[in-house]
Design brief:
Blueprint (H helix, E strand, L loop, with lengths): L3 H10 L4 H13 L1 H19 L9 H11 L6 H4 L2 H25 L21 H5 L1 H33 L1
Helix pairs in contact: 1-3, 2-3
Length: about 170
C-alpha cells in the first residue's frame, strides 16, 4: 500500500489511473488527514512550479572542456603493467618446469629403452628423496621464504599506514 504523501503526489502529477484518481479525490473530500496533506503538498507544488530554473552560463561548456583538456590523458592498461614483472614471472615458471623436466629425464633408466622393441618397457623407481636434498631445492626454498617475508612486510606496512591514517 502506498503512503498518503506518495498517493497525493501521484494525484498532483496526474500519473494515476482514472479509478485511482477518483478514489484519491473522495479521500481528499472525506478525510481531514488527506485534505491537510493535500493542501500542504499542493501549495509546495505550486511554489515549485513558479520557481525559475537556473541555467548555466553561455561559456560553461567551454570552461568545462578547457579544464578537461588540462588533465593528463590516462594511459592504456598496457603502459600501466611493468613488463619486467611479466618477464620475471614467465622466467620463474619456465625455469621451474625446465628443472623438473631435467630431473625426470635424468631419473629415467635409458638402458631399458632398447628393450622396448619387444613390447616391454621397464622403468626404475624414481628417487624422490633427491628432490628434497639437492642444492636446487634449498635455493628454491630460500627464495620462496625471502619472497614470503617481503610480502608479509609489505602487508604489515600497509596495515600500519592505514591505522595511522585512521588515527589522524
Amino acid at each position: 500500500m502506498k503512503i498518503i504523501e506518495q498517493e497525493i503526489w501521484d494525484y498532483l502529477d496526474g500519473s494515476l489511473s482514472e479509478d485511482e484518481r477518483i478514489s484519491i479525490e473522495s479521500c481528499i473530500e472525506n478525510d481531514p488527514l488527506y485534505r491537510s496533506i493535500f493542501e500542504e503538498l499542493s501549495s509546495l507544488n505550486d511554489t515549485l512550479q513558479t520557481l525559475e530554473l537556473d541555467h548555466p552560463s553561455m561559456s560553461f561548456n567551454r570552461n568545462v572542456m578547457d579544464k578537461v583538456d588540462l588533465e593528463p590523458n590516462p594511459g592504456s592498461i598496457k603502459s600501466l603493467i611493468d613488463k619486467r614483472i611479466i618477464y620475471g614471472i614467465s622466467a620463474f615458471f619456465i625455469l621451474t618446469i625446465g628443472g623438473l623436466l631435467l630431473f625426470l629425464f635424468a631419473a629415467i633408466d635409458w638402458s631399458s629403452v632398447s628393450d622396448a622393441t619387444n613390447g616391454t618397457f621397464t622403468t626404475t623407481a624414481i628417487n624422490y628423496s633427491a628432490l628434497s636434498e639437492g642444492p636446487f631445492v634449498k635455493a628454491f626454498l630460500f627464495i620462496d621464504i625471502m619472497l614470503g617475508l617481503l610480502l608479509l612486510d609489505g602487508f604489515l606496512r600497509k596495515l600500519v599506514n592505514t591505522k595511522k591514517l585512521k588515527n589522524i
